[in-house]
Every structure is written in structure tokens, then in C-alpha cells.
Amino acid sequence: MSQDEQYMRRALDLAVLGQGSVSPNPMVGCVIVHQDKVIGEGYHKVYGGPHAEPNAVESVGDPLLLKNATVYVTLEPCSHWGKTPPCADLLIDKKVKRVVIAAVDTNPVVGGKGIKKLQEAGIEVVQGVLEKEALEENRRFFTFLSQKRPYIILKWAQTQDGFVARENFDSKWISNPYSRQLVHKWRSEEDAILVGTLTAKFDNPKLNVREWVGKDPTRIVIDRNLSLEKDLNLFDRSQPTICYNQVQSSSGPNLEHCALQEGFDIEDVLADLHRRNIQSVFVEGGARILNTLISKNLWDEARVFTGPVSFGTGIKAPLIEGLSFQESDIMDDRLRIYRNIKL
Ligand code: AOF
Ligand code: ZN
């Protein structure tokens, strides 16, 4: 690893500290180095709050050192007046010597303009240092911008013989303490969790974060004809919940009924979530909604648990073309298999 890469690695690690509180903004970290010594660090802590760069600049003890400093930032410094002043202007004002950037900000209001501003002010700019890592870290942000829909993570658990539940929808077999805890961690990392009608009905999930410390995501359920019972856990109003229907129904605290047109499809739901600035969705089933998303290639990651049991018959697991769990665990970059996980 080069020295630039080492400092950028630190900036990428700092950025992650903002996970869960900056969406729909990106996670951004910043490290300021003077004569091979770190003199300042910062990250974007909260949506609407100061960006990574002002936080890092603020942390520098002797501001005079900034003049000869190199600033490492995981995303191109912004050039626009948003909720805060442009970060590029701040770095120009402080007369820093060099700015090292991991990824360009694809937000159209920035889109290279921050880099141009810095260069025009005579600052040396290096870009693309640990770019791959930076794109991966902010994959939700970049996908949200480029696809105009939330980043979609599919999750299911299947038996050795490829079933997600028995015919009576019983799927209790997968629950072991470790997989449950992992799922709760995953829930806390996304803006929303989506389930279909049958999963809401038969599993009666709470879809909150109990086995991990973190925020509860917004719950999203599709219930076209308002057929779900009102006393399901999902409707307990303990956290924001959106229910998509094709008929009008009244909303109340923490429970919004959103009526889409007759015969709406999943794209309409995703477009509405995009409008609401929901950057990522964790899809917990059932098989029908998972298959729909897979068949339309509307997914970015699939996390699949496999258990040591066989059902022989039941509800078939979603199929990703070309995937055979027997052959290999990783068939696709997007697919992550968690095989027989145990404590
Ligand atoms: C930076 N450093 O730490 C972040 C940036 O609404 P605002 O004013 O907070 O602006 C949000 C946009 O600014 C966001 O969509 C992204 O393009 C950029 N985020 N930029 O220079 C940061 N978080
Ligand atoms: Zn900024």
C-alpha cells in the first residue's frame, strides 16, 4: 500500500462511523496530513450536518499547518451551497497544498465541479486512490443516484434441497441465535425493510432491531387489497411503516397507507421509495416478491442462508439463474452465501 492509500484507508474507515445517520447522503471521511503526520480527522456525522471536510479542518490544532497539508477525502469535495457551504471553497480558503480523492461525486449538482474548482485555485488534485473501495462503501448512495431507486438487498434462508418454507409457510427451522442476530444487524444498516403480503400474514414479523444496537428501519409492506389483519405486528405503529395498496385507506401516526394505481408493479413501489429518499431496502421475503425482483434484475445483493435440513416438499427457494449451491458458494459478485452458520 502506498502512503496515499494508507491515509485514504483511514479516511474510508472514518466514513463508516456515519453509517445509519447520514442517509440519503453518502458516508464521507477525511484525513489531513502535514509532513507525514496526521493533524486532523473528521467524517460526515449526520444528515443535514457539516460534511467531513469542515469537521476535519475544525479538528486541526494549529490552523497554520493547513497551508502545506494534504487532504484525503473519500468523495470529491462538494461545490454547491446545500445545507452547508461548499467544501471545495473551504479547502481553497485554507490554502491546502494537495487534495487526494477516492471517488468523484456523481450527484449532478457536484459531478466534477468540486475537482475543477480546486484545480483552478492551483491546488494539486489526485483522484482515484482506493476508488473501488470507495464505490463499494457508498454503493447504496451511488446506486440510488444512477438507478433512481433504492439499493436492493435480498435475503432468504433455504434448506439443502432448496425450500424456504414448508407448505404451511412454517420456516422456523432457520432461526438459530447467530443468524437471527446477523439479520438484526443487517436490518439496522438499511433505511427500509420490505415484505410481501403472505410473509406479513404467515410470519407476522415485527421487522425491528432487537438483537443488535441500531436504528429501526422503515417497514414497507405490499397489501394490494387491504387483506391483512390490522392486529399484525407490522401495524403496531411502533416505527414508521408504509403500506402500499391499490385502494384508498386512512393513515395515522407511524402508519401510512399509500395508494398506487390499480395493478401497480414493483417498479412503482421503488419509484415511490426513491421519491421518499429511501436509499436502501432489505427484502425479507417472501418467495414471490424475491422472484419478481430477481426476474426483473432489480437487485444489488442477495444474502442467502443455507441450513442443514431438508424438507422434501414446500415453497421453493428463489432461483438465480446459473446458481447451483452445490458447485460453489460464490457464483456472482452480488451473491453472498451463509452456509450452515452456527455460534
Ligand atoms: C462532501 N463532503 O462529507 C459529504 C458530501 O444537503 P447537503 O448540503 O448536506 O449536501 C449533500 C450532498 O453533498 C450529497 O448528496 C453529496 O453529493 C455531497 N456530500 N460532500 O464534500 C461530505 N457528505
Ligand atoms: Zn461538502
UniProtKB/TrEMBL annotation:
User: Pfam family example for this protein?
Assistant: RibD_C
Q: Does the keyword NADP apply?
A: yes
Presence of keyword Zinc: yes
Cofactor note text = Binds 1 zinc ion.
Q: Which InterPro entries match?
A: APOBEC/CMP_deaminase_Zn-bd, CMP_dCMP_dom, Cytidine_deaminase-like, DHFR-like_dom_sf, Eubact_RibD, RibDG_C, Riboflavin_Biosynth_HTPR
All copies of domain CMP/dCMP-type deaminase, residue ranges: 2-125
Q: Write out the GO MF terms.
A: 5-amino-6-(5-phosphoribosylamino)uracil reductase activity; diaminohydroxyphosphoribosylaminopyrimidine deaminase activity; zinc ion binding
Active site positions: 53 (proton donor)
Query: GO:BP terms for this protein?
Result: riboflavin biosynthetic process
The superkingdom of the source organism is Bacteria
Q: Which family does it belong to?
A: In the N-terminal section; belongs to the cytidine and deoxycytidylate deaminase family. In the C-terminal section; belongs to the HTP reductase family.
Please identify the protein, giving its name as recorded: Riboflavin biosynthesis protein RibD
